[in-house]
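testing teh design pipeline on a random one, pls ignore if ur not involved
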């Protein structure tokens, strides 16, 4: 009686095809992530100024934010919609105008971002001072 041996199925797993796929995915995500541009605010922090830059000839427009989140524009209290209107007027009179944002160190971040958003909407340069 001739009995044949049954061939056992190997329980081993081939990792070579899996590593190929992982490397291809890694290369794909590395290439696509370098093409993605984040949607961020154009923020310029105060720092050392260049010696070639002439001093500004106009008064700076300063928006202060106190610890409770209220705004003052060039020394007078104002609401966010008032800041919006003032910035629109400034932009009409001087297209290259800029504003300085001076927040208190305990000021809510949402209030600072709201002013940055207004500056972004009107394409103004906004500089944030060191919180005090």
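output:
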């Amino acid at each position: 009686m001739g009995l044949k041996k049954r061939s056992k199925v190997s329980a081993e797993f081939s990792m070579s095809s899996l590593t190929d796929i992982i490397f291809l995915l890694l290369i794909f995500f590395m290439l696509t992530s370098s093409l993605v541009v984040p949607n961020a605010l154009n923020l310029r922090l105060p720092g050392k100024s260049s010696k070639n830059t002439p001093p500004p000839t106009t008064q700076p427009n300063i928006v202060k934010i106190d610890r409770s989140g209220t705004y003052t524009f060039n020394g007078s209290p104002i609401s966010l919609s008032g800041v919006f209107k003032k910035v629109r007027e400034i932009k009409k009179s001087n297209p290259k105008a800029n504003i300085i944002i001076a927040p208190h160190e305990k000021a809510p971040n949402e209030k600072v971002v709201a002013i940055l958003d207004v500056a972004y909407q009107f394409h103004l340069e906004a500089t944030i001072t060191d919180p005090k």
